[in-house]
Amino acid sequence: MSVGIDEARLDAIYGMLEDEIATLSTSLTASGAPLAGTTINSDCLFIGHPKSLPKELPVIVCVVGGDEEDAFDLESERLFIGQAIPKYNLKTSVYVYVNPDALKKGSTTKLEADARERALSRLCDWIYGTVHTYANLDVELDSTICSPPEKDHLSQVLVESTYKGILARGFDGSLRIPGARLTITGWVA
After folding, report:
1. First-to-last CA distance in the chain?
2. Mean pLDDT, the chain, as a whole number?
3. Which of 3, 94, 150, 167 has the smallest count of CB within 10 Å of its CB?
4. Residue 40 contacts by C-beta under 8 Å, 6 or more apart in sequence?
5. Which positions ≥6 away from 38 have C-beta within 8 Å?
6. Is residue 132 a contact partner of residue 16, using CB atoms and an 8 Å limit?
7. CATH code, domain with 178
């Protein structure tokens, strides 16, 4: 079975992040950094949300379809350039969670809040820096839906919006942890 554009875009966004995981690790775990002494590698990256957040991981980065859980994922329109060509606007959310137990503990509440905010800022900056590169402006996908037999391309890729704060996680929303949701958008035509 061939891969469709929905699945192919998840793989593409995941691949972008996986290629740059060493940069994130350096930013967050170097001496004096918010998560100093921890290990960040591709084990921290997921497609979809895991059932639970593994306690052994300092951060978790989840790539999911849509601009929110159970929300807008894809819209389409027809372009008429000699023939009716479909054009798809895909929204992909990247959720980042910081394990509160992994944060560099300060002697005061102020220092702990500072470490949490800096960790979230560095995670978001890493995603901006990874997505907003010339190489990722037009990303080849593994799908061939729009122009077979040629591979589709996710074009005009950018981080459209960011929400940071204390996010509810878990089936009942009882787990509240530092996190952010970044919405990445791109077109396939």
Report:
1. 21
2. 85
3. 150
4. 21, 24, 25, 28, 29, 58, 59
5. 28, 29, 58, 102
6. no
7. 3.30.2000.30
pLDDT, tens only, 50-67: 877 788 899 999 999 876
Q: Which domain covers residue 149, as residue numbers?
A: 5-188
Which residues have a Cβ under 8 Å from the Cβ of 25 and sit 6 or more positions away? Answer: 39, 40, 41
Number of Cβ within 10 Å of residue 10's Cβ equals 19
pTM attached to this predicted model? 0.87
Written as six digits, the tokens of 188 are 């396939």
DSSP, collapsed to helix, strand or coil, labels residue 158 as strand
Residue 37 gets the label, from left (phi > 0), alpha (psi -120 to 50) or beta, of: left
- Bridge partners of 182? 94, 162
